[in-house]
Write a structure and sequence with these properties.
364 residues, 15 helices
């Protein structure tokens, strides 16, 4: 457990350093460098406590290296979001463990998250606009995007795998399995896509009306909105003078002020609403299809017992990869998470196979 603590700090140090190296905004890059140095200090402290020589500190884990690769390919905003999500999940885990064991909660459990925001809010080089931009970036992408991708593939794999095994149990694995699997894959993918389209579209329509009202308030009473924004920042613990300066600077640009106010007052992230409902639907369709093809492909080329066995093998491998991928934002043990997903997936498939077999025997 102690070595795990050291590894967590080393990973955070590594990722904050990569964020700093790839951040075009000098002031924000400096924040990341400070966080990297703080995490390095934490790692050395944990190492000394665990009697690990400081010069032999553990290298970045596969998880940290994978997140850095995602940042290189897509955007380092994903890394920031995943890193912040991990910090929060670790803090919540510590709090839950203390509550379970009836230990005193001191407030230090969320120190990692607090340190970042303390530096951000007290650094004089960080303007109000940069503060708001940083907060928007870390909330709008990152862990949630990675999580959506992983769970989308999991939905496709698990649902089609269970369907295929159910039909295989009833028919012995003949070509009707392929037809049922393709139908189930298309139905599931289309359902997911339509659900995603409706979700995005309804959210956009719901919030657009509230955003219009907020813009009207900015036009009619800008002084009042500026005061309200300053009070919001003061409620977060920012000193009054700094909060007033931040609010004053933000209100100079009505478009930016509107974006900040709808987020702070209404909890609406404008960047998320700008996404295309059709794009979200296609993305959901694609992820579900990729996952669903894994258990279905063997029945396209084979039939009978061999196709069933191969489908179980490929699906088991896919389930393990998905379970392992989830650790990117949970920080849990890779093998535990992977095999847990395999266990649940195989149980679901076994149940549907057994039901299908009973139905097949009854029909015969």
């Amino acid at each position: 457990m102690k070595n795990k603590s050291v590894q967590t700090e080393i990973d955070a140090c590594y990722l904050y350093r990569r964020l700093a190296e790839n951040e075009p905004d000098t002031a924000v890059a400096n924040i990341f460098r400070q966080m990297s140095e703080i995490e390095q200090g934490h790692a050395e402290a944990f190492a000394r406590k665990a009697n690990i020589p400081v010069e032999n500190l553990i290298k970045p884990s596969w998880r940290a290296i994978t997140l850095n690769l995602i940042g290189k390919i897509f955007s380092y905003d994903y890394v920031l979001g995943a890193l912040m999500d991990t910090e929060k999940s670790l803090s919540n885990a510590i709090i839950k463990t203390k509550e379970k064991n009836k230990l005193v909660i001191t407030g230090a459990e969320t120190n990692h998250v607090k340190i970042l925001w303390s530096i951000l809010e007290n650094d004089k080089n960080i303007t109000g606009a940069q503060h708001a931009k940083f907060e928007t970036r870390h909330r709008s992408v990152g862990g949630n995007a990675i999580r959506a991708a992983v769970l989308g593939g999991n939905d496709g794999l698990l649902s089609v795998f269970s369907l295929v095994m159910g039909v295989a149990g009833a028919t012995g694995g003949n070509h009707s399995v392929m037809l049922a699997g393709i139908a189930g894959l298309l139905a599931g993918a289309l359902s997911m896509a339509l659900g995603e389209w409706i979700s995005v579209k309804s959210s956009q329509e719901l919030y657009e009306n509230q955003m219009a009202i907020e813009m009207e308030e900015i036009e009619i009473n800008p002084e009042g909105e500026e005061k309200e924004l300053a009070l919001i920042y003061m409620a977060k613990g920012i000193p009054e003078d700094q909060a007033n300066n931040m609010a004053s600077e933000i209100m100079k640009d009505k478009t930016h002020a509107h974006k900040v106010l709808v987020k702070e007052e209404l909890g609406i992230n404008v960047d998320e609403l700008e996404g295309s409902a059709i794009e979200a639907a296609l993305y959901s369709f694609f992820l579900f299809t990729i996952g669903g093809l894994i258990p279905l492909l063997p029945f396209i080329f084979l039939s009978g017992f061999h196709a069933i066995i191969l489908s179980v093998i490929t699906s088991t491998f896919g389930l393990f990869l998905i379970g392992a991928s989830i650790t990117l934002f949970t920080g849990k043990n890779l093998w535990y998470s992977g095999f847990r997903m395999v266990l649940f997936g195989l149980i679901a498939a076994a149940i549907t196979y057994g039901i299908g077999n009973l139905i097949g025997v009854s029909i015969s």
